[in-house]
What we know:
Radius of gyration of chain B: 20 Å
Helix content of chain B: 25-40%
Shape of chain B: globular
Largest sheet of chain C: 5 strands, parallel
CATH superfamily of the largest domain in chain C: Thiamin diphosphate (ThDP)-binding fold, Pyr/PP domains
Number of domains of chain C: 2
Largest interface: B-C, 45 and 46 residues
Order of helices and strands of chain C: HHHEHHHHEHEEEHHEHEHHHHH
Number of domains of chain B: 2
CATH class of the largest domain in chain C: Alpha Beta
Largest sheet of chain B: 7 strands, mixed
Oligomer: heterotrimer
CATH superfamily of the largest domain in chain B: Thiamin diphosphate (ThDP)-binding fold, Pyr/PP domains
Number of helices of chain B: 12
Strand order of the largest sheet of chain B: 3-2-4-5-7-6-12
Radius of gyration of chain C: 22 Å
Number of strands of chain B: 14
CATH topology of the largest domain in chain B: Rossmann fold
CATH architecture of the largest domain in chain C: 3-Layer(aba) Sandwich
Shape of chain C: globular
Amino acid sequence: xxxxxxxxxxxxxxxxxxxxxxxxxxxxxxxxxxxxxxxxxxxxxxxxxxxxxxxxxxxxxxxxxxxxxxxxxxxxxxxxxxxxxxxxxxxxxxxxxxxxxxxxxxxxxxxxxxxxxxxxxxxxxxxxxxxxxxxxxxxxxxxxxxxxxxxxxxxxxxxxxxxxxxxxxxxxxxxxxxxxxxxxxxxxxxxxxxxxxxxxxxxxxxxxxxxxxxxxxxxxxxxxxxxxxxxxxxxxxxxxxxxxxxxxxxxxxxxxxxxxxxxxxxxxxxxxxxxxxxxxxxxxxxxxxxxxxxxxxxxxxxxxxxxxxxxxxxxxxxxxxxxxxxxxxxxxxxxxxxxxxxxxxxxxxxxxxxxxxxxxxxxxxxxxxxxxxxxxxxxxxxxxxxxxxxxxxxxxxxxxxxxxxxxxxxxxxxxxxxxxxxxxxxxxxxxxx
Amino acid sequence: xxxxxxxxxxxxxxxxxxxxxxxxxxxxxxxxxxxxxxxxxxxxxxxxxxxxxxxxxxxxxxxxxxxxxxxxxxxxxxxxxxxxxxxxxxxxxxxxxxxxxxxxxxxxxxxxxxxxxxxxxxxxxxxxxxxxxxxxxxxxxxxxxxxxxxxxxxxxxxxxxxxxxxxxxxxxxxxxxxxxxxxxxxxxxxxxxxxxxxxxxxxxxxxxxxxxxxxxxxxxxxxxxxxxxxxxxxxxxxxxxxxxxxxxxxxxxxxxxxxxxxxxxxxxxxxxxxxxxxxxxxxxxxxxxxxxxxxxxxxxxxxxxxxxxxxxxxxxxxxxxxxxxxxxxxxxxxxxx
Amino acid sequence: xxxxxxxxxxxxxxxxxxxxxxxxxxxxxxxxxxxxxxxxxxxxxxxxxxxxxxxxxxxxxxxxxxxxxxxxxxxxxxxxxxxxxxxxxxxxxxxxxxxxxxxxxxxxxxxxxxxxxxxxxxxxxxxxxxxxxxxxxxxxxxxxxxxxxxxxxxxxxxxxxxxxxxxxxxxxxxxxxxxxxxxxxxxxxxxxxxxxxxxxxxxxxxxxxxxxxxxxxxxxxxxxxxxxxxxxxxxxxxxxxxxxxxxxxxxxxxxxxxxxxxxxxxxxxxxxxxxxxxxxxxxxxxxxxxxxxxxxxxxxxxxxxxxxxxxxxxxxxxxxxxxxxxxxxxxxxxxxxxxxxxxxxxxxxxxxxxxxxxxxxxxxxxxxxxxxxxxxxxxxx
Lengths: 433, 337, 381
């Protein structure tokens, strides 16, 4: 057993920091038993003899008589002589240090002197490495929801100053509370002045341009007047798509899935973009490059009480149809509740905008700034249509694809649009394409 | 506990002191390891007569007139508890608990933890507390904060006769040491009490009590100030305001869930205690409610307390103690934010 | 820095002490190992008794010594040695019945061993692993009390409980003994306890190990009257004995126990002994006491004088001393090993041990603490 033990200078007096070696009672080479006296040291309180914690041979004296040593510093090495490679012959016992046998003396931590106990150990000035983030306090279980609106006191004051009734504000705070932002937006979103009191309505109503309206306007202007927009149209018979949805509705594995035409449209878009990835890109003037994205962060334009927002589903191309349906449902519900996070509004790569819900057939959608294309979807309406050589009433849908002509040319845009339309007309084609 | 199906015991009108007496009587009848120790509690029945008649009923062995030595009262009670008894000590007045302070905070509070859970000290220490009786100095102290600040102690304060009757029994039955405060200016308050063992439906010793329902503000009080809070609420009702009053009952631990439910409802909290405001229970409650109810608060938590001076001479004490006007002013302040 | 007398009375104390050589103090075993007699002390001194007491003292001293070494090696934060006081502790505790409850102060290692307390248990609190190291009810030996004299009141109350039990069941005949020092006798709680016990006739023995020093204050400065005289004033059955004479201590304790057990007044025994080491391992007694005083007391060593008796009478069986030495070595090794193996304390346990019934708020705090610790990489699962 080749074992070497180091004896580090202990704190023998409840908070001492150092001691002076007075005299060694052993020499290198001596054999000692446990508790044999090794050395006499002097502390601030007393002269103390230190007994050996281990039996063995004294291999090295690591401090000299007269030397002041910090608590925690190794002062002697004791062990099996066979463990030590040839040591230089020691003229003075105190000076002998075997080669490579004794690790470097550790620098002990500084400790202020105290009267009782081990004394405070000064820790390293750094954070303790974390396994998981500090747990934020979630809502306390068992506490009933408040009937009254929740808001931190400064926000209450703001609401009072702005004349906002907190009970009418949709809270977006993590603890279910109304935030400062909520109050500000509520203040901005208030309908411009209703005529008050009896008498004729005023000649004009003035609303300051601010907040979300201002920001939306700026974005739309930037998009419309930077990217040269081309809009192409395609009207398709979507009977088969609708029938597919019917079939899926009866399928037990789709029982809890919200099945809408938008789901199939989105799937068609993703399928088409997979075939034409150059349309899933962005013109970056500032870095003078076109960035093509591997994944499609699919944005769905939504009209909310706060205004128009375009939250996106990250990497929608990787989702199964079921997952995509769930994501669409969640996106819509969150947007309607006004709870879309800022993060989900960023990094979109392609947008679908549905104006069919407003009952119009088509439009010329404006690109979501930074994107290369946007698909506008009109309403599904029964029209007389050519079907198997006859004129039949068929559900038709008009798709409008606007694209940034700087990076999407007519051919690409057309192929993209045609691809989408084909899949909506004949969904079964997705198996073979 | 009452047996199921038995008729509820009849109500008796008792003073708070008499309700305590009846509770001690019941506790001693239920468990013959219970014994009372204190100065003048046996033959005299206690300076407030809380233990009147108990020595006759249970004997001088179990109702012991102790020597005049508070440290000795608590120290020997610890020894008795180690031997298996369940001592109930009386400290004659709040201001005289200090000689026993070391026995309480160094020994009583810590014995369980320092014995790694092996030693149990089911000792109850009854202390008449607070002012309002025109007493000389050292007889009107409110020192609950020192003991609430000591880990290992339970601290409770009764405020009404019915509560006192049950709480004293629960405190005696509790296996942890309990400091039991009795509001001496309320010893003569009368109310109906269901005399008898504590029913299973009774609130636990750690539970606060909703003394009055309301919607506009929450008044939090304990011991002698519960009555003050209720009186303030009565006046406010006449002014068209509805205040909820909570009797804290347990000072350590505090029934924060009940407080939180109320403050979330009303949005306004006022704590009322006789002890000085600085580092008093009101400070702890204000901090805890702010942590838990920050977004439900309409205004900061207010505290209506004794001033931060030694307790004044008797003729000035009404100027020192929280009263209806100070309470109402504090609530009004919460409506100004 | 040489010894500097801090107390003028210290010199006077030494002079007084000179007048109290072993011969002047009541006892049965002189410092030179010869038997003697004292009024009020009677004992059937047999080889078996003497060898048993000798063994107890040797083991007590060895445990104490090993613990001292461990402290000097940094394994204990502090150690309060009872070296020199073995006779006062062993003689007294062996004079009790096993059912008699004992309240120690914080230096009664030799007595604790006699009650079967595990050496590691005695070291746990000095290593910072716990506040107490044994189950008091398993040994009828209370946990150490570090607040001076507090245990005298506890002992008095406990004895009152015993008296009450005895009324119910006359077969109960246990008593209580409480250890304390000359310094503690100045505390309010000590004097309240003397008075309370006497006034209520509690079945308790107050056993004062007057080891001459309360850290650096000599006992002569601690009190104007002798402690055993003060005790008489309170109404206690008081006795003085040479604390380094294990036979005398044993006899005094047996007599006091018998008297208290029979319903007599509570008793007080002042055992005059000497604290050979410092107050603790943080202390430097050379600053305040003279080397020749220590040497004088060395000459009255309790173990040496009993050995002299055993040898003079030939009372030790062949191999007795070697076997005892081996036993002591084994005890020392066992103590060392157990000390190093003491598990560090967990704060979760402190939470759980604060109340019998954990309040919801404390449970929340404990759970928050656990979650917090578990959030760190270095948290041991």
